Amino acid sequence: MASSEGDVASSEGDVASSVGDMASSEGDVASSVGDMASSEGDVASSVGDVASSEGDVASSEGDVASSEGDVASSVGDVASNVASSEGDVTSSVGDVASSVGDVASSVGDMASSEGDVASSEGDVASSEGDVTSSVGDVASSEGDVASRDVASSVGDVASSVGDMASSEGDVASSEGDVASSEGDVTSSEGDVASSVGDMASSEGDVASSEGDVASSVGDMASSEGDVASSVGDMASSEGDVASSVGDVASSEGDVASSEGDVASSEGDVASSVGDVASSEGDVASSVGDVASSEGDVASSEGDVASSEGDVASSEGDVASSEGDVASSEGDVASSEGDVASSEGDVASSEGDVASSEGDVASSEGDVASSEGDVASSEGDVASTQESPEAAGRRRALHRQAMARHRARQTPEAAGRRQVLHRQDMARHRARQKVEAAGRSRALHVQTAAWRRNTGSSRECFHFNSIQFILYSPI
């Protein structure tokens, strides 16, 4: 994707360079027109020196020069409108850069989600360590049972009570791991919501870019209107020139007596005409440069070759903006993939929660086994005529342990798990509906952009998540 954006940026740079060359060529044309006006001024001065009767001719030629000045002013207005259109193009490029920044933010959110997954894996490893510790306690209890004798029964009772306390500590630790895993699930859901928000922000940037494209099209239409107005001004100026030519014809009778001086002045005029021809050669060379630049634009933007001047540049910007829209929609699809990945992380975290609950059940089984060892040890102590105070303490500890065990077996925990599962399934179904609608819109926009830019039809179908495209001329 970064390479494609680099190619688009390079193509836009070529377009901007071509527009700059065209503006420079128009400046050369304006300079040549100015030189021609200066040469005509010299002709008027020579004719004025011929005789007083040539004053009318000089005045008429002055009117011609004024009309050509109006034409030059109209050309300057056209150049100003071209510069304004280039400013709009620069603004559109800035919007594209903003969209790229939003894509980078989405990538950062994806990295954060991966960090949450790593944290969940660490919690799983901690739970496995607790399971290993519980297994060690069970082995120790079995060793105590194997080595039991009447003389060490009191020590076994104390050891079993310690093992039971250790197992209860493991149960509490496992429950803490369960709570931590549920917190990770909540954090992952928050990351999913953040990714969805970033996707909505990217779609907003796409809409803003489309608005800028529409504004550029409006500016292009305004520039065409200014060109039409300038053509009208040129036609009016040509009418003034024709009127001035009539005045020149009425004054030719007076000029006939001074044809010798006029011939000399005509030599100067011929020299000026040569300068004009040279300027026209420069204009032709500039036009050739413009044509070459347009060829470069055509090779980098598929549809720029079908337009000319400012209209061609504006249509190229429209095509580039549509490409940015397609790229942004691709980023939206990538964000949807991140959402799906985050949902997978949520499911994995729920599996970790279930595993941790299994560890809790196993630890409770260890507690029950330890209580059985305590009861057996109490029987051994009873057979050795232990004091009633110690027996009462052991019975009290046994009743407390059984009460804690029964309190843990309440249905509230199972009910909470079922509620969380139903909520997750409802959110998953809602996200699937939103994602299906977004993919349909993206496919429609891509198809319409292809038909506008290339003049051909495209039909798409999918097989195992792979998109196949069939092309045919319209």
From TrEMBL:
<feature type="region of interest" description="Disordered">
    <location>
        <begin position="1"/>
        <end position="424"/>
    </location>
</feature>
<dbReference type="InterPro" id="IPR053108">
    <property type="entry name" value="Chlamydial_TARP"/>
</dbReference>
<feature type="compositionally biased region" description="Low complexity">
    <location>
        <begin position="267"/>
        <end position="297"/>
    </location>
</feature>
<feature type="compositionally biased region" description="Low complexity">
    <location>
        <begin position="148"/>
        <end position="163"/>
    </location>
</feature>
<feature type="compositionally biased region" description="Low complexity">
    <location>
        <begin position="239"/>
        <end position="255"/>
    </location>
</feature>
<feature type="compositionally biased region" description="Basic residues">
    <location>
        <begin position="393"/>
        <end position="408"/>
    </location>
</feature>
<feature type="compositionally biased region" description="Low complexity">
    <location>
        <begin position="87"/>
        <end position="109"/>
    </location>
</feature>
<feature type="compositionally biased region" description="Low complexity">
    <location>
        <begin position="41"/>
        <end position="57"/>
    </location>
</feature>
<protein>
    <submittedName>
        <fullName>Uncharacterized protein</fullName>
    </submittedName>
</protein>
